[in-house]
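Example record for the data management plan.
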Amino acid sequence: MVDVSAKAVTLRQASAGARVRMLPETFAAIAAGNAPKGDVVGTARLAGIMAAKQTANLIPLCHPLPLQSIKVELIPDPDLPGYQICAQVKTKAETGVEMEALTAVSVAALTLYDMAKALEKTIQIEAIGLLSKTGGESGDYTAS
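Corresponding structural encoding:
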């Protein structure tokens, strides 16, 4: 594990995104609340929040961090068709929260798949990536 004890505690923020692509029929069933397992979007959102809080337990050598804010959104996108997932995580710590944001969108996407797999097995999880981060010695970053 990297020694971050000499680093200053600063405000750190990261956002990550993912896409979940599905058939139009699956998208319509989720939107109508007709998935066999129940509230797909609400469950996936909660799973993403819970996952961000567990990142240090899931990823070896990742620092456990006190998270002050976690926001996970699943935005319906009929043009995919499917969902755009976005997570924003904030902390005041010696190291950043990129992994927490990436974990949040990954687990939210996996949960969406699990909740809807009875409707469709060909759901695709795509484009998981860091969208932006602020704070720390390496400075700010925004994906192009």
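Summary line stored alongside the record: The chain has a mean pLDDT of 96.
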